[in-house]
Amino acid sequence: MSGRRNESIPYFLGGISEKDQETGNHALVTSLMTRFDATRRRLSQSGNVHGEVATAISNFKRLKLCTNTRKRFGSVPGVDVGDIFFIWGEMGLVGLHSAPVGVELIGVEGSGENTPIAVSVVSSGENADKTDDPDSLIFTGFGGTTKFHDHQPSDQKLEGLNIPLEAALRKRSAVRVIRGMKVEKRTNGKIYVYDGIYIITSMWEEKGQNGFKVFKFKLVRQPHQKHAFGIWKSVQQWKNGLTTRPGLILEDLSNGAENLKVSVVNEVDEEKNGPALFTYVTSLKHAVINIQPLVDRCTCPQGSCASRSGNCACVQRNVGGLPCVENALVTRGPMVFECGGSCACSDKCKNKMIQTELNFSFEVFKTMHCGWGLRSWDPIRAGSFICEFAGDKIIEKGEEEDDYIFDTSMVYNSFKWNYEPELVGEDASNKVSEAIRVNLSLLISAKKSGNVARFMNHSCSPNVFWQPIAREQNGLWCIYIGFFAMKHIPPLTELTYDYGASPGVGKKICLCRSKTCCGLFG
Ligand SMILES: C[S@@+](CC[C@H](N)C(=O)[O-])C[C@H]1O[C@@H](n2cnc3c(N)ncnc32)[C@H](O)[C@@H]1O
């Protein structure tokens, strides 16, 4: 591991106090997850030779950037049932599951007993575990050939990690369950879903597939917890056409304009009409903002804009290189530059991040308090492109009430999202500005025509942010607004962004119900 360390971190002011390392809270968990993913994305963008995940984990460990290090039974401060993790190490960072194997254990101090007890398990969702039921899990023990692939098959024994599992059964103690989910699009890994507190209720032996003895542990989900894995199972069934989405009132709001259907769902009242009529369009009309002719559009051969050694004129306008890695924005900033219409590269160019089809199956759904809202059936990784704000570019707000305006001149809450240079071994002066270009003035109305973005409601604690994106079109500069995930977003979580407030104070009463709601917006 030491070979992977980034040794060039001279000073670092972003440390975490010993108290916060031991026990966290929501703000700390969210900020750690954001900082970690920003570090990982930057290391990936700069082609870190030791692997971006290993280096990011190593740097975070070395600087003690972690929380909830005190092992505990039951829930973990700041981590919610349903939270998702794209890398095993992220669970350790926030104290949900710190062990490198599927069982984390605790030695109970002062209990007079030396037997360790299991506090959390990660089910791979594969091997011999039975994982179909959202309220219980049959977890296979360790040893033999089942999980360690020995060459010599043998019976599992009551030793090693089977002991803390058996102790948790005896004590009827709380065990956190994390379910590993294979997701079609993520060929190189799993997503881990925190599914809440379970109790081990029984244990037995049976013959495994190879004829040798294996242990089975039955874990039962405790009542009154938010649905988590259950949601994933339901979505799978809707996607596979095995069951119909309850409350579905329209199959495809886009009427075929998008590559994926946009469902309309109402589970809160009897209204069956759906949102008021508008024309579904997939992009912004009349996006021209600056008529200066371009001199240096890209002349790259197909596929080469993304290459690190390449010198694509469009990529080079961005600080740090290709702005997007693995479909995620690396840093937000005053402006991001894409390849455009006259560039020599292909439609599939990796520097055309918002000129893509929808990556997620969205549904427009009736919310309890804010009319229609937007959410995704798929999990969304931090930084992912969600959609652009489609509509009509307008010069000024009209007399008529328009609830569907996007306005760059509003006052937006600041937030920190970009990586810290020190964490990737760069000079602190490399900090990428998070300010949107000051002179950018763009007003879009999605009242008459728009896409899924027009249904995103405002929140004072949003999970989505916007980013201006420039590209050349017919020799002119055009500016678009792209929405990106601020954090990892579990399926069926409402997607919201900060609408900003008019200079001075917002005019509308905010019903976002977040703990940090400031009461007004717009
Ligand atoms: C762009 S639309 C969003 C979609 C809208 N909810 C609908 O039903 O079509 C903006 C409008 O949604 C409502 N809205 C959005 N966020 C809200 C919030 N946090 N609190 C109250 N109303 C909100 C307000 O009526 C606002 O003018």
Automatic annotation (TrEMBL):
Enumerate the spans annotated as YDG domain: 74-221
Give the main location.
nucleus
Q: Which Pfam families match?
A: Pre-SET (PF05033), SAD_SRA (PF02182), SET (PF00856)
Q: Where is the Pre-SET domain?
A: 296-357
Stretches assigned to the SET domain: 360-500
Question: Keyword Nucleus: yes or no?
Answer: yes
Q: Where in the cell is it found?
A: Chromosome, Centromere; Nucleus
Give the keywords, sorted.
Chromosome, Nucleus
Q: SMART domains under this entry? A: PreSET, SET, SRA
Name-wise, this protein is Inactive histone-lysine N-methyltransferase family member SUVH10
**Organism annotation:** Camelina sativa
Gene name of the encoded protein: LOC104699121
